## 1
Amino acid sequence: MSAPTSRSASPASLIRMVAKREITTKLHDRTYLVSIGVFIVIVLVVVGFNVLANSGHNEFNVGVVGSASQEFKSQVVTGAKQLDAKVTLSSVKDEAAAKTKLENGDLDAVVSGDTLITKDNVDTTLGAVLKGAHAAVVQQQQIAEAGIDQQKLAQAMQVAPMHEQTIDPNAKTNLERGIVAIVAVGVVYGMLMMIGQFVAQGVVEEKSSRVIELLMVVVKPWQLLTGKIIGLGILGILQLAIVVGLGLGGAIATGLITVPGSAISTILQVLAWFVLGYTFFASMFALAASLVSRQEDLGSVMVPGTFIPMLAFFAAFKVLDDPGGTFSTIVSMIPGISPTTMPVRAAMSDVPAYQYTLAVVLQVIAIVLMVRLAGRVYAGAMLKTSGKLKIKDALAQSRETLAATNAE
Amino acid sequence: MLTIDRINKQFGSKNVLRDLSFDVRPGEMFGFCGANGAGKTTTMRIILGLLTADSGHVAWQGVPLTRAVRRTIGYMPEERGLYPKMRPVDQLSYFGQLHGLDASTAKRSAEEWVERLGVVMSPKDTLDKLSLGNQQKVQLAAALVHDPAILVLDEPFSGLDPVAVDALADGLVEKANAGVPVIFSSHQLDLVERLCDSVGIINGGVMVATGTVEALRERESRKQLAVTVAGAGSGWSARLPHVVDVQEEAERAVVTPDAPDSSSAILAAAMELGSVEQFGWRTPSLTEIFREAVAA
């Protein structure tokens, strides 16, 4: 008879195994895959629809009855350029032919002498280009006919452009960045709630299926909790990368939107805060979930937990409204609220470095405390696989479980 | 040898285990019997390191159990549990890895045990698609997948059909023959009697009887006589001397004498009543030993 060999595994490798299982199980879960697939399809449809709706926008085909003067042509080209449009001129035989082409959509407008013919309302941009060109050509003709010296007139018409002065030159970009931040926070918040829910469901699943007792023999409660949070967190970031990357990348690539360079830093900040916020809330959800033993009871214990991120999300809107106010300064430094409010505030105003640092430090401290508390409650609640527990009772029980599982 | 030495455990003011001691030698199959709530599960959880004893200790080869050794225990908890939405082979392989096997060994071992225990399923089935009996087999495979050095099984036979019981029993015997100490609790005392080398009977947190099945029988033997007398007439056994209790069924009777030494006097009296066809000390079944021990 041989003595049992001691096969030791490092905490890191145990955590890795737990995390890996969380990811692979989700990737095998048809419901999950379908929901992600639907997400991706929605993003693609939205991007695709916008691309289609915007393609050909500001590109016009205009027919000219007879032939257009060189002057008119050059005026149209200049005018179109100024308004960021493209107008192609072609000549048509007569008005009857022009009208047919207007009817079947080959032409957007027809210029016949001093008349502009369109099928229905003329596009504002196109109208401005054509009317402007027409006016310029006619003006020049009238000036020449009146015998006015063209050169003198040109000099008289020359006016230095009005000087522009802005009190807050960054106001517009700040608002743009703020909007980028709040949209990013919104997407990230949704993802956080979804992944947090997965963590909670996973914790209850292990209790309700009672597999927890087998796990606890080899994996310590904190390792199990850490592995679960890391595994699902990685999944969340991948999910975020796919959905956001596809949407944003697609939109930028097809020229649908232009993201200002400074927005990249805003998005990175939102993601960094996502990691902090996720760790905090996932631990909190795990704590709540470990108190119950059935999925049906999960809802009731999750309510206080989901209330805080919701509050944090609404606070972010208030910050968008008044980034420099006292309210913004305070909420952006409160742990749990800072992950959604600080990136918005930082995008819209200059946050003193000490305040930013303080917000991060406080949030990290809160995470450490929350993870420790969650780990204890989780440990104490693990072997109570029926009914609901109070945090106090779980903490009392945790002393023994931790003593047992931490003994070497 | 696995030694459980004077373990005490209280839950609140309730004494769940009192000075509980027993040994299981390598290759020995130890049947752990006791009524519900007697303390079997608590004892097993203490062995596994899920609970701590208030006093006393558990040792392997004379050394208190370390976590590293505990990782080599194969455990089947009373409250069965596996991941319902995971495929059996995937989760067995996961448990194998948690217990220290590398990925490929774990997968091979998982497939082997699923095959050996005759789990009926199609490869794509998740655990919750399997019948209860098959889920139970997967549960047992989870205790065996990492080639455990010690087996601790809480009610492994409950809920199994006779064919599955035999498959499981064969698996356990094989493990024991390979030198693994096997502890299992069961209410099916006939099974315990058939499989186990030694038995521990626990009652109210106290080990009331422990030892080999033979030794326990020895202890309980010379207490009842089986007597068959032909042609003695109804109520014959009541006329025997030195008898405390009788259960008569036609010619056969089970007789409890006042003392073992009274047997010759009883035999002589029986021969007076008719022709004695059978006379001898009765071998008690484990069920009887259990009743006796628990009632004492």
## 2
Amino acid sequence: MYQYQDHDKALVCARVAEFRDQTRRFISGELDEESYRPLRLLNGLYIQRHAPMLRVGIPYGTLSSRQLSQLARVAEKYDRGYGHFTTRQNIQFNWLKLEEVPDVLEMLAQVDLNSIQTSGNCIRNITTDHLAGVASDEIEDPRPYCEIIRQWASLHPEFSYLPRKFKFAVTASAHDRAASQVHDIGLHLIHNDHGEVGFEVLVGGGLGRTPIIGQLLRDFLPQKDLLNYLDAILRVYNLHGRRDNMYKARIKILVKSMGIDAFRQQVETMWQQMSRADLCLTDKRIAAMKQCFSPLPPLVDDVEFVDLADGDDGFSLWWRQNTLPHKERGYRAVFLSLKQQGMVPGDMTAAQMLAVAELADLYTGGEIRTTHRQNLLFPHVPATEISALWRRLNALGLASVNITSINDMICCPGLDYCGLANAESISVGLGIQERFSRIEKLHELGPIDLNISGCMNACAHHHVGHIGILGVDKKGEQYYQIQLGGNSAGTETTLGDVLGPSLPQKDVPDVIENLVQVYLDQRLSGERFIEAYRRLGLQPFKDAIYAVAD
Amino acid sequence: MPWLIKGGGLQQDPWQICNDDCVDYPPGLILISREHWSKQLSLINRPKTGLILRGDDTQHIDELMIHAVDLIALEFVGFKDGRPYSLARILRHQYAYTGELSAIGDVHVDQLPLMARCGMDSYHLRDDQDSHLALKILSGDTLR
């Protein structure tokens, strides 16, 4: 993975010193709340329901064991002994003290971590496929480009006060695992007809109050032009995005109101007029960055586990559900499920973090990934070591056999923590999880993406869950709207259809169970939930829930 | 006379802002809006005239205007409105403007480093801002 150079370290340390000074001035009253707010947001610090929340960036979801250990120490020393992994591959601490945040940032800087631009109206963490460098269907590892974009975007002086936040996702496979079509910019690494590598550029995707799927801006952008082209897109957005209404300020609204053709015209003109030689990516720079993410040597000692993992024993079930093949011979990728029964989805204790960091050194070369669905992944585990690793993960409560199942839910912090939420998410998620506690049941259901957001800001991407749940406030009561048929993985991104009127919290687990039963009753052989929904449409599901009430 | 931050120091601000309805220009350095400039073509040959540009002026700037003035002041109508940063980049790069580029309006000390990196080189702080702190921030003193 990329190692911070001296200039990266200097930049982060300067930022910590700057924020320490700003926070000191705020606490002493020299700086008012209105002026401090965007400064703290640029450093990932929110003031939440109970305490300040700090979001720490994990660029493109790649984390070293050393960094994870340090996150554990932060959780122990400054928080309540745990952290929460997010859909954008970051980690959040929920119980910090404002005056201690500069110390936390200093501790993070020691291991090349920071919270720069994890909130605020700026370019946020660049996310990517958690299987980058692992998946056999990728053109090449997308992370060198993510790192190049990260360096360009970090403390970008022109784009630190955009009309609204700005999110990138980069993928290199036809099968999307980074929800790239619902990002402000989605970049797809592709080959053109001449075999050259470049990018398909999507723009204007996003969820929140106005969910929109990104549109094609450019079908092929040569690699060398990447930064100049991004610069042009951001400049057009910075100058023309709406600033009078924060709910209409995202780039998706600008693109929609201008029309994609007029927007493209503006970007292309800006690109021609403003391209800078220093932003042009040379082959040498790309090659040097690729060196930081060099592929693994194939293992000669290749063991095929097909026979071994064919049984109904715990290991075999886990192996089939929670591990994936690797593009290099002899390795497998292993998910660490953060959806243990009864635990907050995406949460991890400091003790687990420390233990996982140690396991990462032993089993995956010290490299850990965070995933869009709020789990961790060991990307490069020698196949021969898998059963030993399974025993260790089991002991830590990180081997729940539920990856890709309905219990592998995305869940926002909801009303338990978040100042924006209308309703709880965690309790709803746990209530559903309880209904599907049997492995056999999960296995029977197959893959179902369940996404639960506590408000329309859609942090848990409920619009693109096969089953999406949205918490709403109905005269002070917590109600939940159900959506079906959303999808952000694979090749076809779709927004879910609203099932009907929202339902009280106590009914949600029953409703989900009934919806799933419709699928079980009507599915064709081998048909997944999302496929069955696309064939059947909303009606049979709607009938199963509302016919009774009517 | 208010203070201007320029060249790493504080100096008295020699520029006077003239409102759009002004017809009787004071002697010395004056700052006028783009609309004012477009209506009062006689100003083109007046020495010591500076132009105020706002975020929504982007579509209306032209080569003649840029190179006829002695200073361009980019106005922050609100400190969270980041359009002047892009305007600065466009003036410096696309129009090759090499004259003084000033920040006026809702100018906060904590944003000066961003302004400097986008090509602005003098700053009229908002009234309540601490100019000595501004100098420290610009020189990197608060980072040590």
